[in-house]
Amino acid sequence: MSTGTESDVGTTTETGTGKAATADVDTAGESWRGIAPEDDEADAVDRRTGLKLQQRARRLVAELLRPHRRAVTVALVLLVAENLVMLAGPLLVATAIDTGVPAALAGRPAPLAWSIAGYAATGIAGAALRSAFLLLSGRVGQDVLLDLRRRVFAHGQRLSLDFHESYTSGRLISRLTSDMDSLSDLLEKGLDGLFGAVLSLVGVTVLLVWLDPMLAAVVLIGFVPLMVITRWFQRSSRASYRRTRSTVARLIVHFVETMNGIRAVHAFRRERRNDEIMDRLTVANRDANTEAFLSVAWFIAGIRVVGNVSLALVLLIGGLRVVDGTLALGALTAFLLYLRRLYDPLDDLAQFFNSYQSAAAALEKIASVLDTPAGVPEPARPVPLPTPVRGDLEFDHVRFAYRRAAERTVLPEFSLRIPAGQTVALVGATGAGKSTLAKLAVRFYDPTSGAVRLDGVDLRDVADADLRSALVMITQEAFLFSGSVADNIAMGSGHDDGHDHRPPTRAEIAAAAEAVGAREFIEALPDGFDTDVRKRGGRLSAGQRQLVSLARVVLADPAVVLLDEATSSLDIPSERAVQAALETVLAGRTSLIIAHRLSTVLIADRVLVLADGRIVQDGSPAELLGGSGEFADLHEAWRASLA
Amino acid sequence: MSDHLEQQPHRATLGALRRLAPYVRPHRAALIGGGLAALASSLAGLAIPLVTRAIVDGPIARSELSVLPWLVLGVLAFGLLEAGLMFLRRRLVARPSTRIEATMREDLFAHLQRLPVAFHDRWPSGQLLSRATTDLNTIRWFVAFSGIFLVVNVLTMVAGVGVLLWLSPVLGLVIAVIAVPLIVLTLALERRFSVAARRSQDQAGDLATVVEESALGIRVLKSLGRGRRLTARFVADARGLRGTELLKIRLLAALWAVLVMLPESAIALILGLGAYGVATGTLTLGTLVGAVTVMTYLFWPIASIGWLLAEASNAAAATRRYWEVRDVVPAITDPATPVPAPDPVRGELVLHEVSFRYPGGTRDVLHGVDLALRPGETMALVGATGSGKTTLTALVGRLYDVTGGAVLIDGVDVRDLRLADLRTIVATAFEEPVLISASVRENVALGLPAASDEQVWEALRVASADGFVAALPWGLDTRIGEQGMSLSGGQRQRLALARAVIGRPPVLVLDDPLSALDVHTEAEVEAALRRVLGGVTALVVAHRPSTVQLADRVALLVDGRIAAVGTHSELLAADPEYRRLLSSPDEERADEREEVGA
């Protein structure tokens, strides 16, 4: 259950009935995807897991509707009123024909006039009530949708990196786009049908019984096959609807990856191959949709057969009884009219079930994201950091293994204290644990055992927003968000506690850019600081993007700075400017620098050489260079390469 | 947020829907069949009240029991026919509707892939994604349901009115009178609805963009702790969408009111006039019952016109959004008369007076760049951050086209070659290697799906990536990229290098291929790179002296111009700017420290 959601479906399936969940999905054409430890979203779900998913989804619906109890009640009242008013219609028609016309013939036009006026009134009232219902239920639906979007989005931001790395962006995107679409479809097309159908079902049935119990019995017997058909449909279509959701998610993953990597697609002529893959994914989705569609067809036709057979029976029996004189002609007419009103909304009910099944499958997936606990939870009772934060960082007997590869311990019993204000450089081969150390320091992960402390406070006890303003990490991946260059730099400022803070002034932004030597190139852009960075900063070089992301740190003004290869794409003078900035603007701050260039390392007060999660050398650059350890060897090799 | 979208004047819904024609045409038989089935089933449904009327007026009024069972059987037959036809309709449209969606999506995807990088720079990917999913979904619904019913319900209404006219011309006229305000009001509301429909779809696209950024930029958001702020932005956008949806709901509610109130008034009128007719003896009771029943049958088709029109508006807006992207003509395409690729390729790469300006830009990024690489030569490209190095590398493989001058390979302008040929000759490795969620094999053999394992391993060996790939749990089959094993920056760059060399392209363009390597692997990859560069023409963007030393010559790019070309030592000696960029400050510092330490 650690990472999650659909993958735990897979696990349960394996341990459950033993039915292979993914095998029957992974058809021959899928080998390009390769093999991964936790395989994809399972489509086939065994019964127990299925029930669990449904429960989760149902609980979520109840939770979402709770704040709208009053509005929902009012909406239901409106709907009941509308149905009652509309039900009065045929009754008034019957009255007009049975008593109004004979009375009029007898010279008393009043009953006829009243019933007709009554009918017109019901029409107008019905329309007004219906509009009111649509407005109210539409608002509730939109509020629920907004609430759900906000929840999923915010929860996604809270979930640990561990979750994101296994869940992947494409699936999260599909939760927030296409799954939300199917919920919105349900709210738009379905709900109204459900309430309307259920209400008229109940109301019409009561009326039918009141009009003529015997004929009503005929209709009631028809309900039995109706129930059977509905159950069958629900069960048989659930799997296909689940499949429509997971196939569309896969398609979204492929789409997003292709569009974001379009340069590589062009450079390596991958268009055809991508087309082939997209065709396959689309066909899988198309077939799932077709299958779901056809089960709806059976369902609707079945309902209609039941309805029309009931109608014929009522006509036969009713007709005989009118001839007998035990039933008035007007009563039979009314009965037939009501019967039609009973079965017409059942089409809407079918439509509802159609939307519902699709939305339910989406909701299951959404609910499972929401149910995933944040891997690095916010403390219930946060301990405040001292003000100002000094920046004393300590690793106390930290052991760490990634959950996805639990058998490989990245850090065995790691202890390190970085006093406030020290600049520490981390050196070591790939896989030595440098980045892991940085990720633990910013609490992307929690240690398996031991503790990481900032100014003596365990990071697990620090409120997230406090931690983020005390400690900032910049990685080599300089992701720019849509907006202007200034917006992107401004991201660094403020405290992320959900309140609005004074946005940084243009002068502050410019000063931050100046500090890291980015101002010159930014001002040379077409609109200077207001230049739109376009998608992912496509127009800026990797080095320029790194400068922008470094400028964020200056505004963030944290006590501790972690740089994980943050200057890898800079040319030497730019890197020197950044180093100068780190030395002056960020002077007195604790910093942990991971860099592979010795030039970066040499500005440090202290160098740590890491191998297999252990510190093998620790000292000032000069000390290490003077010695005969690994660092000196590295430096020697590097100098040789320069010659 | 939507300022990048071409604002189109509001055109008629029907005109927009007409553009679905090329996709609908192949399925027209099935769709027309579906329409006929729907029409027939509603006619069968409409026949039921007529038979009912016959029963009420005939056998029941006259107590003729002998014909009653036959008439009831007639009702039953019509009822079963109705149900059967309903099934038939769905059965007929099931495949076409899902196929149309799938084909449109495949075509959109293929088209988007062929649009140049400049297009993708401009369009937020959320907008593209929403077109490929939400909008096509809307179109599928329209083809399967609303489109057909719009036609069928209108026809049903006409038929119903015909029946009423036949039953009693006076009663039929009532309907005709009611129809006028009905149509006027409906059309007015529909026009407003379609504007809202378009806005809501654009907003959904913007929302998808924020969603995408939040997922793709999660590391940055986490390390800066800006999750809440982006959430606030997302919620603001979602609120905007909610506002538009509420507007749509209001319009729909108004439509509904019109479409219920007017037919109900018609029924009341019919009832009044009919009763008067019965009272005066000009109408039978049975006719009145029949007329009222027909009218109640018409109730749903009329009332449903409201949301059917709304659906049509949605589908029209979706179609418009779809074609907005499909109508973009790929700016970088195969030439009309391609020059055959030189065979064998010598690998002479010449940039002649190349200048470049980004579309919509106000100034050139490159000005009259002249650079000639001899076959087999490695040229390092050195310049300050932002001097135009990356832009220049993108021009060789035509990710962008030059805006002045020309890039020539063996004397042939790259624009005269087929794109496939050009990109077989030139391989480009980007600074940020993009891995896809697929096996190592697929990632290395990106554009060469037919590559053998031997070829893949060979490429991995050249890039000295064979060691770590062999150590992966499933070797070449291990899924990497976002949905698989995470690799370090250095490992990713080596895979990108392997990707570049797999087809043994005669011209290599490498954008800072060593930036993400750690000191330990650098030497190893440098050795690999030396192997890679042997015998091919290569343009290598370099930041470090060690990379520059792999090159035969170095070109110095300053503010989009070539300032100097020469060997590393020549430039070090002669060019102060080059010295500033590349003289090893590390060395100076190291010496300083050593002195301090001594």
Automatic annotation (TrEMBL), chain A:
Intracellular or extracellular location(s): Cell membrane
Record GO terms (molecular function): ATP binding
Span list, region Disordered: 1-43
Predominant cellular place of this UniProt entry's protein: membrane
Domain ABC transmembrane type-1: 74-358
ATP-binding listed as a keyword: yes
Keyword NADP: no
Protein name per Swiss-Prot or TrEMBL: ABC transporter ATP-binding protein
Residue stretches making up the ABC transporter domain: 393-637
Keywords for the protein's UniProt record, in alphabetical order: ATP-binding, Membrane, Nucleotide-binding, Transmembrane, Transmembrane helix
Pfam family, one: ABC_tran
InterPro entries listed in its UniProt record: AAA+_ATPase (IPR003593), ABC1_TM_dom (IPR011527), ABC1_TM_sf (IPR036640), ABC_transporter-like_ATP-bd (IPR003439), ABC_transporter-like_CS (IPR017871), P-loop_NTPase (IPR027417), Type_1_exporter (IPR039421)
Membrane topology reported for the UniProt record: Multi-pass membrane protein
Ranges that cross the membrane: 71-92, 112-136, 190-209, 215-233, 296-316
Biased composition range(s): Low complexity: 1-24
UniProtKB/TrEMBL annotation, chain B:
Mode of membrane association: Multi-pass membrane protein
Cell compartment(s), UniProt: Cell membrane
Keyword terms, alphabetized: ATP-binding, Membrane, Nucleotide-binding, Transmembrane, Transmembrane helix
All residue ranges annotated as the ABC transporter domain in the record: 349-584
Superkingdom of the source species: Bacteria
Protein name in the entry: ABC transporter ATP-binding protein
Protein's organism: Pseudonocardia xinjiangensis
GO molecular function (one): ATP binding
Record domain ABC transmembrane type-1: where: 32-314
SUPFAM superfamilies the record matches: ABC transporter transmembrane region, P-loop containing nucleoside triphosphate hydrolases
Residue ranges that the Swiss-Prot or TrEMBL entry lists as coiled coil: none
Bilayer-crossing regions: 29-55, 67-88, 141-164, 170-189, 251-276, 288-310
CDD domains: ABC_6TM_Rv0194_D1_like
